[in-house]
């Protein structure tokens, strides 16, 4: 699929909530100064790695493994920051900072939120690649 | 002075273009950074090699001398700080231009030149990182790093790094010889006592196969002990000590499970007064 076809694809324009504003993949790609194809390729990898990190994050929370929580939240935060998913970045950062202070309260709720956000991105990404 | 023909001029332009193309090694444990950096650098016409940690980078550096290394700081196995130090201590790699890509705190960034890095670029949104990276390529082609001094770290404090440095300082000061190896026996950490015991500089020790430091006849036994799936701490050489660098040693193996499986090995010189119980 080329850029022009993607620009005409309605699913690409559907927005993923990003804080108080709304964002779509075209805008995110433009903000990251990437071609839409490059962005979607990176997005696919982001969904894969983030999904794996979220599993590690939940397992670490369940086991009370603070270092594991810090590492997996740090990884999610970094990747979300790279691509401009500000809300995921902020939530993961909060989990990381609290875990460093030995606080896991609210972490599971944050993981549920992150799963929901990732699911939205994943579905929209799959539609965009069709 | 005789003027150049058009053919000679074109040849010169081609040679100049060629000299601008670089061999670049990117080291980061996050695949997203590796993919993005590869795309960015390949688009500029450079040859790109990637490694997921310092250990894999060392394996590449044995056969390849890149012009530039971009490396993350916090990675499993051998981290970015240690990788920089090894590169600087290896004679054929000493001219490699090293750039650290990190979200580490400003205070830590100040120390990067002590590690041997030429420059540090803060991690963040790709569009913010790209101009800094392209500037590095431009400036290194010109053979000057002037103009890159303005690249400063951003303000994120990195407690993860300071905690790591804290525990490293503890390990460094222990009198016992401590090594960490990967499941395929590659050494990824060696404290000063173990470096002195084995008698090789750190830059040669890291990435080496631990089993190869033993006498040939002992290697199958050591390999067997290291390979066992037994997760309990265990000792080798209690009945008959092993020879390592001309010294009799007893090995205490403590398996640790943390992400990538690694084993921490405590080496004890049998003539040493310290025992594992005292460490």
Question: Topology of this protein?
Answer:
The complex is a heterodimer of chains A (130) and B (279).
Chain A lengths: L2 H5 L2 H4 L2 E3 L2 E3 L1 H7 L4 H28 L2 H18 L2 H15 L6 H23 L1
Antiparallel strand pairs in A: 1-2
Helix pairs in contact in A: 3-4, 4-5, 4-7, 5-6, 6-7
Chain B lengths: L5 H15 L2 E5 L3 H13 L3 E5 L2 H8 L6 E5 L7 H10 L7 E6 L3 H5 L1 H4 L3 E4 L3 H17 L16 H15 L3 E5 L5 E4 L1 H7 L3 H4 L13 H9 L6 E3 L5 E3 L2 E10 L5 E8 L10
Parallel strand pairs in B: 1-2, 1-3, 3-4, 4-5
Antiparallel strand pairs in B: 6-7, 6-11, 8-10, 9-10, 10-11
Labels describing this entry:
heterodimer, A: 130 residues, mainly alpha, Four Helix Bundle (Hemerythrin (Met), subunit A), two-stranded antiparallel ribbon, B: 279 residues, alpha/beta, Rossmann fold, Beta-Lactamase, 2 domains, 6-stranded antiparallel beta sheet, elongated
Short description:
By secondary structure, chain A is mainly alpha-helical. Chain A is 77% helix and 5% strand.
General description of the model:
The complex is a heterodimer of chains A (130) and B (279). Chain A has 130 residues and is mainly alpha-helical. Chain A has one domain (3-129): Four Helix Bundle (Hemerythrin (Met), subunit A). Chain A has helices at residues 3-7, 10-13, 25-31, 36-63, 66-83, 86-100, 107-129, and strands spanning 16-18, 21-23. Chain A starts with a helix and ends with a helix. By secondary structure, chain B is α/β, with parallel strands linked by helices. Chain B has 2 domains: 6-158, Response regulator (Rossmann fold); 174-278, PAS domain (Beta-Lactamase, 2-Layer Sandwich), CATH 3.30.450.20. Chain B has helices at 6-20, 31-43, 54-61, 80-89, 106-110, 112-115, 126-142, 159-173, 192-198, 202-205, 219-227; strands spanning 23-27, 47-51, 68-72, 97-102, 119-122, 177-181, 187-190, 234-236, 242-244, 247-256, 262-269. In chain B, the strands form 2 sheets. In chain B, strands 6, 7, 8, 9, 10 and 11 form a 6-stranded antiparallel β-sheet that branches. Chain B is elongated and about 80 Å long. The model of chain B is unreliable at 145-158 and 273-279 (pLDDT under 50). The A-B interface holds A 31-34, 38, 41-42, 45-46, 49, 67-68, 70-71, 74-75, 78-79, 81-84, 100 and B 30-33, 35-36, 39, 103, 123-127, 129-130, 159-160, 258-259.
